[in-house]
Amino acid sequence: MRWVSRLFEFVGKVGLFSLRVLIDWPKPPFEFAQLSRQLAEVGNKSLVLVVVSGFALGAVMTLHTRSTLVTFGATAMIPAVQAVSFFVEIGPLVAGLLLAGRVGSGIGAVLANMRASEQIDAIESLSIDSFKFLVVPRVLACVVALPFLTLFMDFAGLLGGFLSEELSSHIAPALYLNHAFDYLQWSNFIAPTLKTAVFGFIIGSVSSYFGYTTDKGAQGVGEAATNSVVVSSLLIIVADVLLIKCIFFLFPDTAI
Amino acid sequence: MIANPSIAVEFKRVMKSFGAKHVLSDVSFQIDHGQALCLLGRSGTGKSVTLKMIMALMRPDSGEVWVDQDNVVGMGEHRLSIVRKKLGYLFQDAALFDSLSLYENLALPLSRLTRKSKDEIDDIIRRVLTDVGLGTDGAKYPSALSGGMKKRAGLARALVLEPKILLADEPSSGLDRITASEIDELLLRRKTEHGTALIIVTHDVHGARRVADKVAVLDKGNLVAFGSVEEVSQSDNGVARRLITE
């Protein structure tokens, strides 16, 4: 039963840490320079990974979908299946998991290294609030960047799907797009994209928690990086289930 | 409350434990402004913990830590930030911010904690870097600096706000004798020319003999000797005598 109490202790600590982010971010001083630095780190540097992954996933998905739909003579549905599945679920979830891997490990490792090398103590000794200086901008950057990265992933997936379909059936771009957006409503698009802001909050706060609170020196750097990825990914998948229920509640049309 | 304003730092019956390990047991001492105190002792005897308590990066389990007439134990973050402006801290491995250049490392506290213009900040940084012998290295990142240069850069950052009290954690560790001596010289100049109180954790007895007005020896969490170098070298405590004479 010891692991149960440790689990609750961990959940409580991460919860309080995340709550502190929510309380601290609207208070001055605002770390705009740090936020812009982190936006570049989280957003710009993840863009290639997200676009290439989305493109490849889109192409592969279309190949698989085609082989199934051909059996039922429903190949005309391929663009719609592709668009709905990417915009509603695959784009947000895969973008979140990719960011958890690339950015989560980075945040965990960087903050743990700063803790081990006394850089966080140095920030405090300069009368600067290290939490506001280091943690809040990283979490905000994840919250802001992930919805945009998700959009890039969605459209890259659609492009990959189109090229794959074009090679198979020589479909015209306009017709593909027409079919793709036939079944897509704004509620299919906006709510799932915005839910990635919650994924971003999870990645930022969980990874920052592991890095900022480590007390194991150099060994803690590797542990923080690994734990950041594992726990962020797990929580993203769990949160996805809960958020889908919320989206169905708020937009009942999308549940059909 | 400290009645005497000449006292820079005072420990009153400070105790600190990590689990079952007693790091500091009932430690009391004081150091005046313009004086240098060297903390000596074997590894793990609570020397760095003592410095961190002065900076309020760590809280004691009991006792009082006075810094320039303020008890920092239990002090709120706002007042603490005011007290910390009187302190400079040279960390053991310099603790420079990896993602910032040397210039930006020094500019950060100046731009955040003062109302100085960009030109004034540039002037201060140029002067401080020149003082520590890094006048042409402002654009370099910490990864491009040698161990000795990092120590100098850490010292420059600790001095950039003109602190009344400078804390230095093993300023000469890992350095050759000549570089260590240059760092000692910089610290000594700070004390004599600016009247800065120095509290230095060190294993370098030569440096301590050169810089210190007072020496404190910690052993197994206890303050076993305190006084001038001569007084400690004649102490009844064997550990203190060995540390200061060998």
Keywords:
heterodimer, A: 256 residues, mainly alpha, 8 helices, 0% strand, B: 246 residues, alpha/beta, Rossmann fold, 6-stranded mixed sheet, 4-stranded antiparallel sheet, 38% helix, globular
Nutshell version of this structure?
The complex is a heterodimer of chains A (about 260) and B (about 250). Chain A is an all-alpha fold and about 260 residues long. Chain A is about 85% helix and about 0% strand.
Which runs of chain A of at least 5 residues are low in confidence (pLDDT < 50)?
none
The fraction of residues in strands of chain A falls at under 5%
Number of strands of chain B: 10
What is the CATH topology assignment of chain B?
Rossmann fold
User: What general form of chain B does the structure show?
Assistant: globular
SS content category of chain B: alpha/beta
Instruction: Supply the number of helical segments of chain B.
Output: 9
Architecture overview:
Chain A has 256 residues and is mostly helical. Chain A has one domain. Chain A has helices spanning 2-24, 32-72, 78-116, 119-125, 130-169, 173-182, 186-212, 217-250. The N and C termini of chain A lie far apart (42 Å). With 246 residues, chain B is of the alpha/beta class. Chain B has a single domain (7-245), classed as P-loop containing nucleotide triphosphate hydrolases (Rossmann fold), CATH 3.40.50.300. Chain B is built from 9 helices and 10 strands. In chain B, helix 3 crosses helix 4 and helix 4 (118-131) crosses helix 5 (147-159). Chains A and B meet through helix 4 of A and helix 2 and helix 3 of B.
